[in-house]
Design brief:
- The chain is of the alpha+beta class.
- The chain has 2 domains: about 10-160, Immunoglobulin-like (Sandwich); about 230-335, Jelly Rolls, CATH 2.60.120.600.
- It has 6 helices and 16 strands.
- The strands form 4 sheets. Strands 1-2-7-4-5 form a 5-stranded antiparallel β-sheet. A 4-stranded antiparallel β-sheet has the order 9-15-11-12, with no helix packed on it. A 4-stranded mixed β-sheet has the order 14-13-10-16, with no helix packed on it.
- α4 (about 175-195) crosses α5.
- Mean pLDDT is about 95; it is low at about 1-10 and about 15-20.
Length: about 350
């Protein structure tokens, strides 16, 4: 099978567009932050024509702020679309049969809510609360040195653009400076809180609106928990990158797979030689547990490195089980190795 090198220059060309226009900017407050951040990230993809056709990223998302959305990962190749709801408020998406890897389709709206997440082949009609939806497809990567199977899955993704023709998406022009300032504060407050991410399916929910805004600031694009289908993301506080640290945990019993990815305080993947690992590739201890090492050298088991940078990390549980929801596995508090 053909080996595909990482091509950071290509993805940079795909996702970096013109700066946001400042004229007649909409003020950004905590009350409209979720809409403002959705506009930012949807706008990043709109610049590449995602309201005309699905935009496929053919390489792994690079580390650092070259990524089009905060807190992306290298568990999959991404494809994205922006689609307008039909006269019944529905968007129509799907995945055709034939994928040889994990595939999913994820629907978000302009409120940063996530009404639907589906795994595997199938066609779906999803009701949204806003005019446009942002659709994320994922094609799983089991071997980061060989993307052949994930690339083969991308043409199987489907979006009905019928209601979008003649109605191009235009991102609302929110005040960039105000959005950036509020994002910085929400990110810092989230890391200090020690909370996990929380996401909602639509307008009706019982979640703390500040917690939702913090989650969207540090990890936009999540989804509510649906057992055996959706993913649950658990995040840590900041840790020092100056010393060797390790964490050992019982392997989660997720339906699909599990991953760990390192991030800086702004929520972008740390730009180092190895900043992520998943259950397809990690080595297991003799008792079945898993040890992850941080900044402990190449000979350390499952070593990830930050090159001295402080870090936080996210544990992603794909196809979450009730035991994982109940947080029976831990694995989020590294200690200095002696």
């Amino acid at each position: 099978m053909k080996k595909l090198p990482l091509a950071t220059a290509l993805i940079t060309n795909l996702i970096i567009g013109a700066p946001d226009v400042l004229a007649s900017a909409i003020p950004v407050t905590i009350d409209n932050y979720n809409q403002a951040v959705a506009a930012k990230y949807m706008g990043n993809w709109d610049k590449r024509g995602a309201d005309k056709a699905i935009v496929h990223l053919p390489i792994l998302v690079p580390a650092g702020d070259k990524a089009p959305v905060v807190r992306m990962n290298q568990d999959s190749l991404y494809s994205s679309a922006i689609v307008r709801a039909d006269e019944n408020g529905m968007v129509h998406v799907g995945i055709h049969e034939g994928a040889g890897v994990y595939v999913s389709v994820h629907v978000l709206d302009e409120n940063s809510a996530s009404p639907a997440y589906f795994v595997g082949a199938g066609e779906h009609s999803v009701k949204i609360d806003t005019e446009y939806a942002f659709v994320i497809f994922r094609a799983g990567v089991e071997d980061k040195s060989d993307l052949t199977d994930a690339l083969a899955a991308q043409p199987l993704f489907y979006v009905d653009y019928g209601a979008t023709v003649g109605h191009d998406y235009v991102a609302p022009n929110y005040d960039v400076a105000q959005r950036n300032a509020l994002t910085k504060k929400l990110k810092a407050d989230f890391l200090k809180s020690g909370k996990d991410f929380v996401y909602v399916a639509g307008k009706k929910h019982n979640e703390d609106p500040i917690h939702i805004a913090q989650s969207n600031a540090q990890g936009w694009g999540g989804m509510p928990v649906e057992l055996g289908v959706s993913n649950i993301y658990r995040n840590t506080k900041q840790f020092s990158g100056a010393a060797c640290q390790t964490v050992t945990f019982e392997e989660p019993d997720n339906k699909y797979f599990t991953s760990i990815t390192l991030y800086d305080e702004t929520g972008y993947m740390i730009d180092s030689s190895r900043f992520s690992i998943n259950s397809y590739e990690w080595d297991r201890n003799s008792d079945g547990t898993v040890t992850i090492s941080f900044n402990c050298g190449d000979e350390a088991v499952n070593n990830l490195t930050t090159d001295g940078q402080d870090f936080n990390y996210t544990v992603r549980n794909y196809g979450v089980t009730q035991r994982v929801v109940d947080d029976e596995f831990g694995g989020r508090e590294p200690g200095i190795a002696r």
